[in-house]
## 1
Amino acid sequence: MSLSYHIPKGSTVVVAMSGGVDSSVVAALLKKDGFNVIGITLKTHASPETDPRREKGCCTLADVQDARLVAQALDIPYYVMNTIGPFDKKVIQPFIQDYLQGRTPNPCVVCNTEIKFDVLLQKAKDLGAVAVATGHYAQLSYDASKDKMRLFRAIDEDKDQSYVLFDLKQSQLKQMMLPLGSYPKSEVRKMAESFGLPVAEKRDSQEICFVGSQSYRQFVEKRVSPDQLKSGDICLTDGTVVGKHTGIHQFTIGQKKGLGLQRYPNYSVKKIDSSHHRVVIQPDEVNHQSVIKVSRTNWVQDQATRSFVVKIRYKHAGASAIVKAITKDEVELHFEEPQRAVTPGQAAVWYDGTEVMGGGWIETVQ
Amino acid sequence: VERVFLDYNATNSVNSVVWNALSQLEPIPVNPSSVHAFGQKAKQAVSQSSEKLATLLKVHPLDLIFVSGGTEANHLGVLGHLPLLNNQKDQGVIYFSCSGHASLAKLKGKCEALGFTTAFLPVESLKIPTLDLMHAKREFEKRKPLLVAWEWANNECGVIQPMDAIYDLAKQFGSAMHVDAVQSFGRIPTDLSKFPLASFAFTGHKYGGLGGHGLLVKPNTVHLSPLMVGGSQQNNLRAGTLSIPLIKAQEVCMLHYAESQARRFEHCLMLRTQLESSLELLFKSEHPGEIFAKDVERLPNTTFFRCIGINAETLMMAMDLKGFMISTGSACSSGSIDPSAMLLQMGMDGVAAAEFVRISTSESITSKQIEKFIRELKAFIKTCH
């Protein structure tokens, strides 16, 4: 079986290798299909863990060893690239700031836009490569009539990662390859076996790479000075104070657990007010919104005010909404059905069928 | 692609004279600590190796301590002083070179953790990165040196330190002295009889040895305390069964490497001149760049340079893809690269420090290979414009 690519065969491409099954199969597939493959693992953060056997997550020392083994098995050049500086500036610091401001960030989107398909893409071009390929589950195709790339969901619905790619610009999409989007995960594992890759049995990683097995809360607390973590009130929508908290970074919209309020068992977080360090709760069954403001939008296809299926978090099933342009990079989402736990800091991504049309960042909830 | 190794300051291949010598070792169980016939044979083998190495380095055979490599030799040569300096903690400072290898520079922190006051001494300037002797003298007058730890030649930029002057200064102030001679040995003449009060660290793998063996030379005027205790081997200074094959390898590689020093010097200097004049031409006509400490006395085989605006990591990868193995900065455990710690310690800014790459040659590199390297480097630089 061979895929069709918008990048000509024989070209030099960099595969972002995490040491996992997916990116290893990408390297093997592209090599088999006649590309000149260079493997690169991004070192995104300094892990405090010195024993690679105890590390969890992705891009750890153990994963680097796995990626290196795969590269050797495939006989491709392989390097580890130090991106600790830009990753901290573009991904980790904004992640911490978001939590401190009562938002719930999605660092994977930012890593794709700012690191994998920017810093790494630049390195790839410096090395004479024309594209960066990754193991993301999403599909790309080139529309020659418009000279535009189109981005689609993966065939494997459970694995689809098109959501985290919404913020990529056309210039980036043109220099990307996502060979796994047209395979189910089970098929990818089989390919890993048939290629004889030493990582065929490896489990999928789910954690955010730089957070690892600790909680977000612990991570944020370790990285900021204690005076940035201000205690405050937990109150009802009418302002009645019903409890105290030790920092708004511990909360996310829609959260029910860990509020510590036995008298309000079915309440969830409605709003996090960072200027007053206040967490507002309300009965969970009314914690729904119909209109959401979205800023810093990125239209993968031409901007249009009409109905799309919109996902408001990674695992959201998607719901119909009118995407109404407000300014050049702001839209309002008007949902047919009110949505539970709309969370500032998360991305809203709108689809036409299986195609990603655009997306943006959820700002405020009205 | 033809692979060309231009990273001889990192390591060398095992020399065939070492394999030959090892293949001639008698296949009998040998432990020099045993008093029976085989033990005595072993002891004799150690003595013979010691004699030869001592003659080579112009020291006494009992001055030699066989260790696992340069890192251990630096540890014993520095940390070995501390128990005996313990009662002088408040009376002086342990001074370190700011351009030393990590196995020396990081001992500064170890000494501090043990309650000693330590300091880096600055170099004259980034153009002349050797110890600022006037500054050192003033510093020693203010705060007495207990121990001075220096490298003879730097591993990254190849700069040779004014060893005679540093030694005299340390001696004048009654300080102990330890010298990391790992990179200078076999590349410039190494006569230790001039420095009867200092200890010296050597490795083996850079001279064609196996790796895992090295040497500390410590005259009887220097008093050290062992880092490892156990058996009474090596005058109670380094417990652990002596390895006859590793000692043989140490002897043979050092003797052979020293014997060819003059030829190596001449050949490498010829390559360096060729490389650096081509680089300077390139920097003048095609792309700005600089050779670090160009006009300072350096190892004949080492060139440390940067192409301005081109990250060292990128250049290293690009040249590796073309078959040329060069090196840069310090690799961490994952293999990713950090900017040169030495340049940062000397006060260079982070961006420039992240652009320097190192070429280090040997007698097996040819002028043609250097020519091809320059050609490929130019071709790569063109693609960056």
Note: The CA atoms of residues 27 and 207 of chain B lie 25 Å apart.
## 2
Amino acid sequence: MDLLQGTLDMLVLKTLVMEPLHGYGIAKAIRNTSKDALDIEFGSLYPALKRLELKGWISSKWETSEFNRRAKYYRLTPAGRKQLQREHSKWADFVSAVGHVMGPIPEGGKS
Amino acid sequence: MTLWRKLKYLLPSVRRVEERDMLEELEALAAIAEIKELGNRTRAAEEVRSVWGWPRIEEFYRDAQYAFRMMRANPGFATTVVLSLALGIGANTAIFSLIDALMLRWLPVRNPQELVLVKTRSKGDVSFRENFSYPIVRALAEQKDIFAGVAGFSGTGFLVGPPGSVNSVNGAWVTGEYYETLGLNPLTGRLLGRADDEPGAPDVAVITDGYWERQFSRNPGIIGQTIPVNGIPVTIVGVSPAGFTGANVGQIADITMPIANITQVNPTMAVLLNPGNFWLRALARPRDGVSARLAESRLQGVWPEIAARLLPPNFPSRLRKAFLETELQLAPGGTGHTFLREMFKKPLLVLMAAVGLVLLIACANVANLLLARASARQREIAIRLAIGAGRGRIVRQLLTESTLLAILGAVLGVGLAWATTRWLVDSFSAAWGKVTFDLTPNVHVLGFTALLAIGTGIFFGLAPALRATAVVGSRKSRLSSVLMTTQVALSLVLLIGAGLFVRTLQNLRNVDVGFNKEGVLLVSLDGRREGYQGASLAAFYDRLLARIGQLPGVLSASLSQGTPLGNGTWTERVARDGDLLPENENAIFLPVTPRFFETLQTPLLQGRDFNDHDTGTFKVAIVSEAFAQRYFPNENPVGQFLLASVTKPPSRLEIVGVVRNIATEGIRLNPYPTVYVSYRQREPQNANIELRAAGSLSQVAQAVRTELRAKLPSTAVEVHGLTEQVEASLIQERMMAMLGSGFGALALVLACVGLYGLLAYSVARRTKEMGIRMALGARPLVVEAMVVRDAVRLVLIGIALGLPTAWAASRLIASMLFHLKPTDPATLAGAALVLLAAALTAAYLPARRASRVNPMTALRHD
């Protein structure tokens, strides 16, 4: 499934609400939560992380992982939390607006 | 802040740390994840780098680096382009900085945009008058519900220093509210105030920062000291802020004094305080909350009363009526006032258009060079396109190159412009001795040049860049021929313009001015400053004249009130004796001593010159041909009488002679009826000595100076030639002829360089063809003719386009020409011929090279 522009940032922020994760962990978490529907390429995710970090919405720190391996963990900053709220309500508005336009799925329209 | 964090990444050290950290992180993740999951790690890292970086700026930096390398590789090309642009941009900057200095620069005062210049216009008149009497300016200043302040001012000259070492210093007479209205604070001491401009107030002066520095080395102790001004001790009370040199743009006022002081400091001019003298400009600042428009409408309400109250009782009734019907206008005044603006506005706009054309030619030239080079670089560009560079990316890179070239040209151009304008203004000043402009490049000028550079860089670079990157291989291009003919056409327009101005100047110089300007020296003086008056002054002038006449080398000397094309003449109402004096028919009057006409070598056509018996009161007159024709057509005027308003009631003057017309007011004007009266038949005032010298003029001038300095200790004696005075009256025409031909020549050179380049390039490209033709037996002459024919075709098309353009454009300058139609056939043909000859010269070298092609080499040529 293709992602809408800017949606990736929102997904990353949302994923980090629960716990800090490393880069690969974030990709895995998004895949798992979306029941494999969203398979984010690491090549796109990683630059997005750096972009969010530059904006100050997430921060990173070297930590030791569950398998005793070192990795860089990303966590949400207070600014990032606020940004997530904004994105979330924008997203909700967008979904309901598109829902109004589209209405129920027409007969036989299921693909 | 995001920006701040991003800026950090510009630091190489930060960048290195982050880079290492990123690679380490990716390495660590690779260890955790299955290798496939992470995909192309190198690409991910590259994208992160662009997140951190400033891709646009870094790209620009790389492009600029590349561009510099390209320039170094082709120094000839780069030099040609940069020089072409430097000349084009420099010419534009030069003219624009003159326009800026003359018309656009705000006065360095508080909120200059609020200031308004008061003007009046009589019913039915087209132009406004900007002169007011001292009582009117004071009355305007009293309108406190309209104005926060009204400043009246007029430029003047002061003679400063003790007897024996007197210098002439430019200054101004101002009303008491002058500095307050402008909103200035003193650098030291105080500025003038209302109390200084009251009758009987002590004589005080404010000096400029520049004068303080030059004369007093910024000594603060000068405040409160007196300096002799016109022989009267005047107290310096303060220094005006740096940068402010008066409200008259172009004329520095180093010493500023209140008008009320005129009665003591310059008693002969005390009449200026009277209501009949309109000599002051008025700059006003509307009070807070009153817009210029509101001020204007309120002023209309009170103006009739002020005008009626403050006109002198003896004002002629016709003028009074006209004056009472004048309307007032408040024009924007923040740029100050200058008579130069009216005089040079049109010439400068014409020159601005001309330099615009020069720049277009330069751009076309450079575009053509770039086109030629783009085809030479086709391989390089093709490779870059093939390995995946976007077209936009390459266009951007080519535009960076052209803009850089333009910027280099602009930097050089600003230098050129600065030198040229300095030299230009200096040559004005040599003529007038008084014009000073601040020409240091300011924000306007530099902004203008920067815009010009970037604009031209894109303008001349875009077409070649698009052409170079066009995916479809272009067929034989017409673009370069189009550019070439455009250059030729524009050059022709400029050449024709230059020709018209040069011929105008020639025509003016060939006008019979009625005197021989060569070998005549003039000295302006005023014996009243030395303490002489009435009979003693007349005797003093006689002694001076006798002494000067005896100096070695002096052939003839005379004295007069005014000089041809100088000051000192005036008009009086005249009629034939027996007729009534008309209201508005007048003649120019000029008092002269015997030998005036001999000195100027103005032929006496009938009757006699004045002689030593023509003394006492107005009795005799010598009239000009124009006067004789107007008032005594088909009659001998000698022995007849004329009536003139020189006295009240009018005097009867016997006409004793008729002289050839002298251009007194301007060479362009038709000879105006002129009446010469005997200098010794009226109250002596200031005077001019004119003398004709043989041999070295400068030696005689030195002798005269030495002689007069001893006799006139309170005067700054200056001797100048009549030739200079005549040339000064032609300054505008000289400027147009000089700059016009300069720009015309520039256009011609640029067009020829362009033509040469184009032909040389096309010959190089057609080497093989030429070789084949020669191998098949074409003679060198035929090949030469082929190349020249190409050139001639381009030039002829250009001329065919340029002639109608010039024909249309020259109408705009018709009013600036003299005895010349804007479509003067000789000028048009001359310009076209010059262009054709220059083009043939430019075409000859490439043609010769083409004919020297060795067929064998050419055929092996790829």
Note: The longest strand of chain B covers residues 147-160.
